[in-house]
Design brief:
The complex is a heterodimer of chains A (about 110) and B (about 120). By secondary structure, chain A is mainly β. Chain A contains 1 helix and 11 strands; from the N terminus they run βββββββββαββ. In chain A, strands 2, 4, 5, 6, 9, 10 and 11 form a 7-stranded mixed sheet that branches. Classes of the chains: A mainly beta (about 110), B mainly beta (about 120).
Chain lengths: ~110, ~120
Amino acid sequence: NAGVTQTPKFQVLKTGQSMTLQCAQDMNHEYMSWYRQDPGMGLRLIHYSVGAGITDQGEVPNGYNVSRSTTEDFPLRLLSAAPSQTSVYFCASTQDVVLFGWYTFGSGTRLTVV
Amino acid sequence: TQLLEQSPQFLSIQEGENLTVYCNSSSVFSSLQWYRQEPGEGPVLLVTVVTGGEVKKLKRLTFQFGDARKDSSLHITAAQPGDTGLYLCAGVIYITPTSGTYKYIFGTGTRLKVLA
């Protein structure tokens, strides 16, 4: 089925470790975003991309890096994991959020940093 | 700061009851969406509304967009246990309309539990 695929589903890291959360979409969407979801905080935008080679920061970018070398892939890198980064991470994509107004989400990665 | 507030935050009802969830903002939306999120999954789009005063129906769910495009409501008739989940409103607001700078924001969510 077409959609947004995130891996891994679950991950436990030790403080200071680095890792990459993978995100791939097969809908040829230009816009891709990473969100984190925390209890009582809702969905907060980490980084986003409006096309291959173009990325920008969202509202909570510190401690994360992204790159967009292809239309399909948008990995999120945690540089040095901290307990505050314990969260559920969602990747989402849309062809054009202004024109179409909605995102397709992946099923999420639950990250625990100990 | 553009906020999109939802109420109530939590709702626990019996099967067969009706309910309404509200989504309010001080900003004007060019479009507004409702999503449902089940445990362990990402949000899934239910509906998008664009025109002020618009009403859309999806089986037992009725969505309304306010005339001024600043608020929306979701009404569920005869709720069923399968309606259980987190309901999120979200939408596109323009930060600076002349430059086309926009922001996509999410509401705080309403967690619904329907008891059999």
